[in-house]
Write a structure and sequence with these properties.
seven-stranded antiparallel β-sheet; single chain; Pnp Oxidase, Chain A; 7 strands; 28% strand; alpha+beta
């Protein structure tokens, strides 16, 4: 891990970073959309980010959100931390209501199916993602009234989206 990435990872644990991150999310979304998932705000420090498109559970409209991810055996693990906020992020509730989604990363769009992880599988994937971005452990401490959702996004053969 580069020195800059280590500094950002440590800063990532703070509430100040969460506030900045919320404000940068629209720019991140725009960059990821414009580059097909090749470049996002965190790219300069080596953060892997994908753009997840879900269907709004009440609106029925497409919703996009940039997310850090870890890849495991061709699947993508994402965390619904909401920066350690009180509520689950909307995208995670959208994915529970309609697991069909699309991700953009590395210049490609992939149809995926989201699945909420539980038990040992959740813990294993949490550990993998938290080792990549240690701030998730701080977010979990701040969100102590709820268990942060962990999803696997599994590629599917037909988009259906």
């Amino acid at each position: 891990m580069s020195v800059l990435r280590r500094v950002i990872a440590n800063f990532g644990k703070t509430r100040t970073f969460a506030a900045i991150g919320r404000r940068l999310a629209p720019a991140d979304r725009w960059m990821l959309r414009a580059t097909g998932g090749k470049l996002g705000v965190g790219s300069a420090v080596g953060l892997r980010t994908l753009l997840l498109t879900t269907i709004g559970r009440t609106s029925g409209q497409k919703r996009e959100v940039p997310l850090l991810y870890v890849e495991r055996e061709g699947r993508y693990i994402v965390i619904g931390s909401n920066w350690g906020g009180e509520r689950h992020p909307a995208w995670s509730s959208n994915l529970l209501a309609n697991p069909g989604a699309v991700i953009a990363l590395r210049g490609k769009r992939l149809a995926v199916r989201g699945r909420l992880l539980t038990g040992d599988e959740r813990q294993e994937m949490w550990d993998a993602v938290a080792s990549y971005w240690p701030a998730y452990n701080s977010y979990a401490d701040r969100a102590d009234h709820r268990e942060i959702r962990v999803f696997v996004l599994e590629p599917v053969t037909e988009e259906g989206f």
